[in-house]
Amino acid sequence: MRKHWEVIKKIGQENVAWVYLLGSKLEQGVFIECVDAYDPRYSARQKWVVILSSQKGCPVKCRFCDASFYFRGNLSSEEILEQLDIVLEPHKNGDDCLHSEKIKLHFARMGEPALNPAVLEVLREIPSIYPGINFIPTVATVAPSGTEKWFEELIDIKNTYYSGSRFQLQFSVNSTDEDFRDYLMPVKKWSAQKISQYGHNFFRPGDRKVTLNYALSEGTPFEAEEISGTFDPEIFLVKITPVNPTYQAARAGLQTDLKFDGSYSERLARELDKLQSHGYEVIISIGSLEEIKVGSNCGQLAFYEVKEMENNKYDQEPANKAI
Q1: In CATH, 5-322 is 3.20.20.70
Q2: I need a labelling partner for 312 at 20 to 30 A (CA). Which of 52, 88, 199, 306 fits?
Q3: What is the per-residue pLDDT for 318?
Q4: What is the pLDDT of residue 199?
């Protein structure tokens, strides 16, 4: 019997992704999301992805993310683990997903994980709760200011429970210009230089490289020389992702540079060539078109559910128009 959440909606497609909208049993009008996802490049036996929320909404208010439309506080460790149980339940017959070589446990759906101490509790508990499942935790963060203690604990947790390339840390940087970063992510956060310094403390030989993620809109400042002058390519890799077609991105007038067909601007191509010449591993990462088309980007289901309760009507097909 679940204590915290009930499944309100489940949308998606078999062997692509299932997105769960969960409604709180304890707090009226509180919704979060979690995801059961597949990478089309691999079989379920090779890779499977579980994406969890860490907060009820998000206080960071990134201009391209629909999870930022409200914030109702942190999730407890029990509330986070119950999401995982909901995603795992359809697979408990022992299918290929639970025996996958790589199961990414991604704290990236709704919320900023570094603002929630319960995320650290969950990371400590996972190996003992699920000893037979090869989870590789992935934490995606904007590195908010004041979270130094959280990040120091994360190093200890990674080294104790997830050594040997079984942990992925991703910083959502999104621009090489600090002022534009502040525009995109209007919260006090670490500078690029501080992220670099932390990466040197975090990384050990044999670890996965720390990811610098850039969801680039057209015209976003992005200079290879800024990256190469700050980040060590032996410790950091660069990942480029689209700006997903969300309500908030449309409202801010942000059009993705990396298109969903894999094309991108000559400007971006030049900068990526420079990065590779400087020795960086560069990843171009585009999510499933099928998932995009159902309008299931981070926070969208919760956003529309709350607005429907408020009797406000919003265009629920931004993805189809942007592809």
Answers
A1: yes
A2: 52
A3: 47
A4: 98
Q: Is 282 buried (19+), middle (13-18) or exposed (0-12) by CB count in 10 A?
A: middle
- Check residue 307 and report its DSSP letter: H
Percentage of the chain beyond pLDDT 70 is 93
* Of residues 117, 212, 118, 125, the one with CA closest to residue 162: 125
| Among 146, 72, 147, 82, CA closest to 110 | 72
Contact at 8 Å (CB) between 110 and 59?
no
3-class state of residue 293 by DSSP: helix
Residue 55: strand pairing partners:
74
- The pTM for the full model equals 0.92
Output the six-digit token pair for 176: 């090489």
Strand 168-172's sheet: what is its strand order? 5-13, 17-24, 31-37, 47-52, 102-107, 135-141, 168-172, 210-215, 236-241, 282-284
| 54: nearest Cα among 129, 134, 128, 138 | 138
Write down the domain spans for the chain. Answer: 5-322
Q: Would you state the structure tokens that stand for residue 30, as one six-digit string?
A: 């509180």
Which pLDDT value is given to residue 68?
82
> Which residue type occupies 5?
W
- Which two structure tokens, joined as six digits, stand for 61? 């208010």
Parts of the chain with a pLDDT under 50 = 318-323
The reported pLDDT for the residue numbered 323 is 42
In angstroms, the CA 194 to CA 311 distance is 44
- In order, the DSSP letters of 246-271 are -HHHHHHT--BSS-TTS---HHHHHH
Q: How many CA atoms lie within 13 A of 221 on its CB side?
A: 14
3-state per-residue secondary structure call for 111-167: CCHHHCHHHHHHHHHHHHHCCCCCEEEEEEECCECCCHHHHHHHHHHHHHHCCCCCC
Determine the Cα–Cα distance for residues 59 and 65; give it in Å rounded to an integer: 11
The distance between the two most distant Cα atoms of the chain, rounded to a whole number of Å, is: 55
Dihedral, 11, 14, 15, 20 alpha carbons, nearest 10: 20
3 three-class SS: coil
